[in-house]
């Protein structure tokens, strides 16, 4: 069994699969043999907080989890999971973060969706810290899923969001 509670998010990077769970942990799994994976490390953030989503920087150096307390927590490390440390705790939303996504090498690369019906646009600094550069409102229900895509018009990216109000939104973001 991977976790002792429901798994809410998965992401893969550099041969490692990260699972975010209602038990408040992000676990890192590495492939072992042909058909199995072994636990490589466990990332823990705030006590009594559910982790609803997980994203990993393209270089694998930073892992971010979205919590039920509205915080984005960031861990810094590398392939040696014993050295990982919690380095970033950003109050991102007034309510639970339900989803996150990122868009490659854009300066404005992280997005978060929340039970507070908003989406946060974040800039990741060179040292991994996050700074909010914008907020998108417009949904009548909580933001359940996000996906970013490169824009064919100008710079920036397109951010798509899905919601419990049965709507989908698309928005052009310039960062």
From TrEMBL:
Pfam families: WD40. InterPro entries: JINGUBANG-like (IPR045182), WD40/YVTN_repeat-like_dom_sf (IPR015943), WD40_repeat_dom_sf (IPR036322), WD40_rpt (IPR001680). Gene3D superfamilies: YVTN repeat-like/Quinoprotein amine dehydrogenase (2.130.10.10). This is Uncharacterized protein. It comes from Quercus lobata.
